[in-house]
Specification:
It is found in: Cytoplasm. It catalyses: tRNA(Asx) + L-aspartate + ATP = L-aspartyl-tRNA(Asx) + AMP + diphosphate. Belongs to the class-II aminoacyl-tRNA synthetase family. Type 1 subfamily. Among the domains are: about 90 residues, Beta Barrel (OB fold (Dihydrolipoamide Acetyltransferase, E2P)); about 130 residues, GAD-like domain (Gyrase A, domain 2, 2-Layer Sandwich), CATH 3.30.1360. About 30% of the residues lie in helices and about 25% in strands. The protein is built from 17 helices and 22 strands. The strands form five sheets. The chain has an eight-stranded mixed β-sheet, sandwiched between helices. It has a five-stranded mixed β-barrel with strand order 1-2-3-5-4. The two termini are about 55 Å apart.
Length: about 575
């Protein structure tokens, strides 16, 4: 047989050299020794640097008794080499793919071609390939048409900054890279393509984090003559198929659903992690009756006292650790963290328990369903602060106490989001999803009467506490669309300038339609059990949107700028 690959490691056993030869299929032990190999070949094999590329020819043989390796698929055999050819010698690498202690991420990204040789990286990208194939097969079976939409388009306000591309032909004009194919897919529905799907590349110039990239891949789809249940039901099937084919897991459908308001009440967030219990409990009604200044004052001001019951954790957190948790919730705007331990006799104790009478402590315990050994924790603040603080605290406690298994998979839907949210600084309305989202039919009149109470036909898919996709039923008539633009402060002239092509299309027999976009990168990250999206993208950007391997973004020649009718001003060189 003939094998080609990289030298992962080699061992000189005195007269014979053993090489672990690696390719993307795994490792194979290659033996360069007598009687197959001559002394000169054995000597050459001993000098090959690791990570060099070689070609060997030889015969497959059983390993010697007691020398098999159960950890390798090829652990029962070896290749006894008759011919060896060095195809490329490797310079001394800054790190090796087989080393157990990984270097810093910056070094891994600079030498991404070495990093991608690691087994874990290759497994992640192969899982990505399998997930994408599963998605394509699923939608092909459901009669979807795969349509590519433009990368060079018009700049339209969609919530994040656009990446702009100057036009050489049209001086002073710019294309924008798509934040999503949203407008194009709506026009495809008007055009009669009732089931569209696409693996779309999207671009957003926004602040980055571990699960966000400036360029990302969406599984984007749209359907005509459907409601929210139709779209969610279809994606239920995709989730079940992907879990089965990629992970070998059974997911029960239909996936559970919860309204946005319910999610905020129970978990403080619109993407709750449902792999473990520990719901938020509102004890404001009791707090209002106490003489404890913090609780009573909060309730009297119209704010909230809400808490978590951390089961069986009374002895797991010391005073010092609770102080650390107190400092943690302060990062989210909380002023402090009140807590009680449920003692063996069922009473509540903490440094503040003397400020509450026994009857009120008993009521709190009953509302919190406290039992001996439990640790009860509370925030007293505005609704927003208690949501943010308790959500973060719950997430941290779930991880610290190992309340769920890393391979656990929990998928659910959050529905009926608010149509609008108000900018605290300007007082203006903005769309919670995007400006093309349809309100619930029963809330249509609230567009005029009470925009804050208007709920949208919007739905988010949540996997293990992360948003994995979001969609809406769209506005399909120009009258409602114009009314929403007006609420968002987009006047008629601006609407026609930015969205005229969509508004015009809606006037020509637009069907009811809706869809969803699923974050492919995030799906792969979550299904692989990772917490960094860069681990499942072949060539990702850093948190400063830089490619350390190619050193993009980079300078361009002055002549190129001149061709594009551009010049740089006021830029200081590093």
């Amino acid at each position: 047989m003939t094998l080609c690959g990289w030298v992962e490691s080699k061992r000189d056993h005195g007269g014979a050299v053993f090489i672990d030869l690696r390719d993307r299929y795994g490792l194979t032990q290659v033996v360069v020794g007598p009687p197959e190999a001559e002394a000169s070949l054995i000597d050459e094999a001993g000098r090959i640097p690791t990570e060099s590329v070689i070609l060997i020819k030889g015969k497959v043989a059983d390993r010697l008794e007691g020398k098999t390796n159960d950890k390798l698929d090829t652990g029962d055999i070896e290749v006894r080499t008759e011919h060896l050819e060095i195809l490329n010698t490797c310079a001394t690498p800054p790190f090796t793919p087989s080393q157990s202690d990984l270097p810093g991420e910056d070094l891994r990204l600079k030498y991404r071609f070495l990093d991608l040789r690691r087994k874990e990286m290759q497994q992640g990208l192969m899982m990505r390939s399998k997930i994408i194939k599963t998605m394509r097969d699923f939608f092909a079976e459901h009669d979807f048409i795969d349509v590519e939409t433009p990368i060079l388009g018009r700049s339209t306000p969609e919530g994040a900054r656009d990446y702009l591309v100057p036009s050489r032909v049209h001086a002073g004009k710019f294309y924008a890279l798509p934040q999503s194919p949203q407008l194009y897919k709506q026009i495809l529905m008007v055009a009669g393509f009732d089931r569209y799907v696409q693996l779309a590349k999207c671009f957003r110039d926004e602040d980055l984090r571990a699960d966000r990239q400036p360029e990302f891949t969406q599984l984007d789809l749209e359907m005509s003559f459907v409601d929210a249940d139709d779209v969610m039901g279809l994606i239920d099937g995709l989730v079940a198929r992907t879990a089965k084919e990629v992970l070998g897991k059974e997911v029960k459908t239909p996936l559970p659903r919860m309204t946005y308001d319910e999610a905020m009440c129970r978990y403080g967030h619109d993407a709750p992690d449902l792999r473990f219990d520990m719901e938020i409990v509102n004890v404001t009604s009791v707090a209002a009756k106490t003489e404890f200044r913090v609780f009573r004052g909060t309730a009297d001001a119209g704010n909230f006292v809400r808490g978590l019951n951390v089961k069986d954790a009374a002895t797991k957190y010391s005073r010092r650790q609770i102080d650390d948790l107190t400092n943690y919730v302060k990062e989210f705007g909380a002023k402090g963290l009140a807590w009680f331990r449920v003692e063996e006799d069922g009473t509540l104790w903490s440094p503040i328990s003397k400020n509450l009478d026994e009857a009120h402590l008993a009521e709190i315990k009953e509302l919190m369903k406290g039992e001996p050994g439990d640790l009860l924790m509370f925030l007293a603040d505005t609704w927003e602060v208690t949501c943010k603080g308790l959500y973060a605290l719950r997430k941290r406690l779930g991880a610290e106490l190992k309340l769920y298994s890393p391979d656990q998979l929990d998928c659910s839907w959050i529905t009926e989001f608010p149509m609008f949210e108000k900018d605290e600084e300007t007082g203006n309305w903005s769309a919670m999803h995007h400006p093309f989202t349809a309100p619930l039919a029963r809330d249509l009149n609230k567009l005029d009467e009470d925009p804050a109470a208007c709920r949208a036909q919007a739905y988010d898919l949540v996997i293990n506490g992360s948003e994995a996709g979001g969609g809406t039923i769209r506005i399909h008539d120009s009258t409602t669309q114009s009314k929403v633009f007006e609420l968002l402060g987009i006047d008629e002239a601006t609407a026609e300038d930015r969205f005229g092509f969509l508004l015009n299309a809606l006037r020509y027999g637009a069907p009811p339609h809706g869809g969803i976009a699923l974050g492919v990168d995030r799906w792969v990250m979550l299904l692989a059990g990772l917490d960094n999206i860069r681990e499942v993208i072949a060539f990702p950007k850093t948190q400063k949107a830089a490619d350390l391997m190619t050193e993009a973004p980079g300078d361009v020649d002055t002549d190129q700028l001149t061709e594009l009718h551009l010049r740089t001003v006021g830029i200081k060189k590093d």
